[in-house]
Design a protein that fits this description.
The complex is a heterodimer.
Chain A lengths: L12 H11 L5 H4 L3 E5 L3 H13 L2 E5 L17 E2 L11 H11 L6 H20 L25 E2 L5 H18 L3 E4 L2 E9 L2 E9 L5 E5 L2 E4 L20 H8 L4 E2 L4 E7 L22 E5 L16 E2 L1 H5 L9 H13 L11 E4 L1 H7 L1 H19 L8 E10 L2 E2 L12 E3 L17 H21 L12 H20 L3 E2 H16 L5 H21 E2 L9 H25 L23 H4 L1 E6 L9 E6 L14
Parallel strand pairs in A: 1-2, 1-9, 2-5, 9-17, 18-19
Antiparallel strand pairs in A: 3-4, 6-7, 7-8, 10-16, 10-20, 11-15, 12-13, 12-14, 14-15, 20-21
Helix pairs in contact in A: 1-5, 3-6, 3-12, 4-5, 5-12, 10-11, 14-15, 14-16, 15-16
Chain B lengths: L2 E7 L8 E7 L8 H14 L22 E2 L2 E2 L21 E5 L8 E3 L2 E2 L2 H10 L19 H11 L6 H5 L6 H12 L8 H14 L10 H5 L7 H16 L1
Parallel strand pairs in B: 1-5
Antiparallel strand pairs in B: 1-2, 3-4, 3-5, 6-7
Helix pairs in contact in B: 2-6, 3-5, 5-6, 5-8, 6-8
Classes of the chains: A alpha/beta, B alpha+beta.
């Protein structure tokens, strides 16, 4: 199968989306109600897509594992959302947002997709404001902006440190309106456990009711996977504890190619690990880098309190190495620089795995009140978790897994390689290349859900029979049987090690061999370790309880089983990509001063993996070449 | 530290529950309360006992999933903090901690510490939105909003929908939750068109779900992890009165 991105070619960038929208087939308004669309996951991408499709007149069913769509992990996004509004008159434009995003992604994203993202970014802000999202405003009553890592213009719209929450509640409200109107049926505490494919097309899903354990079948003409990223394969991350890869991994096993699985974002400003008991890492918004200064002591192993270290004994290494972007360099660069300092012995705190993020200068310059107004909730959170007061002593931060740029491969229309199966938001691989810029995840999730998918889905449905899909078919029988068997198998192993122990072990392997720095020998070793762990899992895992009840261990056991396979594919992908780009840093490929060394001649492609067996060694690599029609690629520099 | 935990155990919605007592050791100060519960559950699992079911997800205080009534207080002893952001440094060696689910007739227990909060969903569906379709909207800066109004609306919109207000209230009232949403839209020009209908519909649904009345004890504000102000309830009452009179 050759991969066709379906991105329009040979026309000006700014015309591509417009011309596509005109060329898409349409579904007559009276016929829309004859189509059933299933949406899995109700974060920003899922909730916005569900609401928008329902508004168009399609029948929509939504499923989420939380007890309310409002709890999806989009809610935790702090900093903001980018839009090329140029309200600040500081030289922003659609083209500049497009350019920054392509460059920030280290030239590993599709031009046409990214331009479209930049183009619809302006509509997103309009939409959210109209829904009553309380964005930050200035005294004149107009919207406020701030700057964010990787950009030199102020294009980030925000609602204090809770932008994701407010945007999600906006999309959730739009969804609620359609539930009330009878256009959406919402299933909460339900988890999708398989996709059903018949005659090469998506026809529905198998779902488990997490309260009763009941397994049910749901048919649809199209299925949208909006289930977020798969970072929890690393165990200790900024993801919600429930975030998982099961939906996309099940789809992958049914034939959807997986794009760029190795592209992981490690966020530079997280609260460091404090001990073995830790269950999650907490992110401190990148917006803190607007006013906070990152530094380490010049002397190795300096154990003095930060405020006792005089100015001339501090190394503000980001400002030193990248004078033009300073503390605002993109995430991949800031994370790697922190690791480099800690590896060289300059790390601080008890573990030596932390650097300082210092607000002393900002407090002197703006006063504590102004700092409080801007970052108050983040400072409170830091104090709550660490027991230290960041107004009087420097914060300690360290990088943590935060986002996955990889995901299911999709074409320009957001369709996976299985017709009728779509992936939106973080669940797809599409717009961020090898590194995502800050405040771009919210933008992409909402772009996909509000504006892209509602336009592209008609083009597929127009050719699909309008009769209701039946759940009465051998394909549904088989999928349901497989789900039940998997559950029974896990419950009946009755081994000695808990799911939690396996998950932690997997996470440690991933972090060690497929984390911020990767190399050939480590990745090979990591793959072997995962294979061995997976074998042990299916012999020795202990899952208490029964299938037909609320069973949180069972939920987790099903997810961890999928992570065990996905983790190995990530390593395989990282092994094959013999270059460094964005969040993927191969130690063998770096410039003399330690920056990522890309290899455009050999690796300017999207890696799309086809599933064969549960061992990633057998997976087949397909390459979608990335042609740059408009942008001239260069070595990324933030100096 | 060593702790004694008295935890509410209940197999499902139709069975009777009871307290079980557990001894737990090696708890350190930096653990979050939920991490302490993780330790308990690992211990129970290894002993072939059923772990305690509890709701949790983001573990950073924003998703509103975690609940738990700890020593008689929703989300435990600290002010303005969810259970997931409560740390064991708030307790001391030898303490006995009583852990219960939210108790309110509109929130039936599903298992152990997990309750069914879908009544909140139906209240939001009754009117918690502005009726705008995707695409048909003016430019974001076309309608200026006074900063003071935008800021107050934000403070109301910061509600995480956890249900602590209901659990804390002796009447099991959901007035703080409903008033936060009504206030957010009442304060913004975007919410103005449907203002009267919204408040009437949301309050009607709240009553239909079996939540109790507000008797102004303000326990909701005191225990709200996001410190949503009871002035929202006053605004809700004004909005409701105005809407009723205009009908």
């Amino acid at each position: 199968m050759t991969l066709d991105s379906k991105a329009p070619k040979g026309i000006p960038l700014a015309e591509k989306w417009k011309s596509s929208k005109f060329n898409y087939k349409l579904v007559n308004p009276a016929n829309k109600r004859k189509y059933d669309i299933i949406v899995i996951g109700t974060g920003l991408a899922g909730a916005s897509a569900a609401a928008s499709c329902a508004e168009l007149g399609y029948n929509v069913k939504t499923f989420c594992f939380q007890d309310s769509p409002r709890r999806a992990h989009s809610i935790a996004a702090q900093g903001g959302i980018n839009a090329a509004k140029n309200y600040r008159n500081d030289g922003d434009s659609v083209y500049r947002l497009f350019y920054d995003t392509i460059k920030g992604g280290d030239y590993r994203a599709r031009e046409a997709n990214v331009y479209r993202l930049a183009e619809v970014s302006v509509n997103i802000i309009d939409q959210c404001v109209a829904q009553g999202v309380p964005f930050a405003r200035e005294y004149g009553g107009l919207l406020d902006n701030r700057s964010f890592g990787g950009a030199q213009v102020s294009r980030t719209f925000y609602a204090r440190g809770q932008t994701g929450q407010q945007l999600l509640l906006g999309a959730y409200s739009a969804m609620n309106r359609q539930i009330k109107a009878g256009m959406i049926k919402s299933y909460t505490r339900h988890e999708m456990l398989d996709v059903v494919v018949k005659d090469g097309k998506t026809v529905g899903v198998i779902v488990r009711d997490m309260v009763t354990g009941e397994i049910s079948r749901h048919a649809g003409h199209a299925v949208l996977l909006c289930t977020g990223g798969y970072g929890n394969v690393f165990y200790l991350t900024t993801y919600a504890r429930g975030s998982n890869a099961t939906a996309i991994w099940r789809a992958h096993k049914k034939g959807a190619y997986f794009g760029n699985p190795c592209y992981t974002q490690i966020h530079p400003t997280c609260i460091p690990v404090s001990g073995d008991h830790q269950s999650k890492l907490t992110l401190m918004s990148e917006s803190l880098r607007n006013d906070g200064r990152v530094w380490v002591p010049k002397a190795k192993g300096d154990k003095r309190k930060p405020e006792a270290i005089p100015e001339n004994e501090r190394d503000y290494y980001l400002e030193r190495k990248y004078p033009s972007f300073g503390n605002l360099v993109p995430r991949d660069i800031a994370s790697r620089a922190a690791k480099e300092q800690c590896d060289a012995g300059h790390g601080v705190g008890e573990t030596g795995l932390a650097v300082y993020l210092d607000f002393a200068d900002a407090i002197k310059r703006m006063g504590q009140k102004a700092v409080e107004a801007k970052y108050g909730n983040l400072f409170d959170m830091y104090k709550q978790i660490t027991g230290e007061n960041p107004y009087t002593t420097a914060m300690r931060i360290y990088p943590a897994v935060h986002y996955t740029m990889g995901g299911l491969w999709v074409d320009y229309n957001l369709m996976t390689t299985i017709p009728g199966l779509y992936a939106l938001g973080e669940a797809n691989f599409s717009d961020h290349g090898a590194n995502r810029l800050g405040a771009s995840a919210l933008m992409q999730g909402l772009a996909d859900g509000y504006f892209v998918l509602p336009a592209t889905i008609g083009d597929y449905l127009a050719d699909v029979e309008r009769t209701a899909v039946s759940t009465n078919s051998p394909e549904f029988d088989e999928a349901e049987k497989a789900v039940r068997q998997r559950i029974d198998t896990l419950l009946n192993i009755k081994g000695k090690k808990t799911v939690h122990e396996f998950q932690r072990e997997l996470g440690l392997i991933m972090w060690e061999y497929c984390g911020m720095a990767r190399n050939d020998a480590g990745l090979k070793k990591g793959m072997q370790l995962i294979q061995a762990l997976r074998d042990e899992y299916w012999k020795n895992v202990l899952v208490p309880g029964e299938a037909a009840e609320l069973n949180q261990n069972l939920e987790k056991a099903l997810r961890v089983a999928d992570f065990m396979e996905l983790g190995e594919l990530m390593m395989r992908d990282a092994l094959e990509r013999r270059e460094s780009c964005g969040g993927h840093f191969r130690e063998e490929f770096q410039t003399p001063d330690g920056e990522a060394l890309r290899n455009d001649d050999e690796f300017s492609y999207v890696a799309a993996w086809q599933y064969q067996t549960q061992s990633a060694a057998d997976s087949i690599l397909h390459k979608e070449a990335l042609d740059y029609e408009f942008i001239k690629r260069s070595q990324r520099s933030y100096k | 530290m060593k702790l004694t935990l008295k935890v509410w155990r209940q197999k499902n919605a139709s069975s009777n529950g009871n307290f079980e007592t557990y001894q737990i050791d090696n708890i350190i100060e930096d653990m979050s309360f939920l991490e302490m519960m993780d330790v308990l559950n690992e211990k129970l699992t290894k002993e072939n006992l059923q772990p305690v079911a509890f709701d949790h997800d983001c573990r950073e205080g924003i998703c509103g999933t975690c609940s738990m009534y700890i020593n008689g207080k929703a989300h435990g002893p600290l002010k303005g903090v969810t259970t997931c952001q409560l740390h064991m440094r708030s307790f001391k060696d030898g303490d006995t901690i009583v852990i219960e689910p939210w108790r309110a007739s509109a929130f039936p227990v599903l298992r152990d510490l997990i309750v069914d909060r879908t009544a909140f969903e139906r209240i939001q569906q009754a009117g918690g939105y502005v009726s705008v379709n995707t695409g048909s909207v003016p430019d974001a800066n076309a309608i200026p909003v006074a900063k003071a109004h935008a800021d107050t609306a934000f403070e109301s919109a910061a509600c995480i929908g956890c249900g602590a207000c209901v659990a804390a209230c002796k009447n099991g009232s959901a007035m703080l939750f409903v008033s936060a949403k009504v206030s957010q839209y009442a304060l913004l020009p975007q919410g103005n068109v449907e203002r009267a209908d919204r408040v009437l519909r949301m309050v009607a649904q709240m009553d239909a779900e079996g939540f109790g009345n507000c008797t102004n004890t303000e326990a909701c504000e005191a225990e709200c992890p996001k410190e949503i102000s009871v002035s929202n309830i006053a605004r809700l009452n004004r909005e409701y009165l105005a809407a009723s009179l205009s009908k």
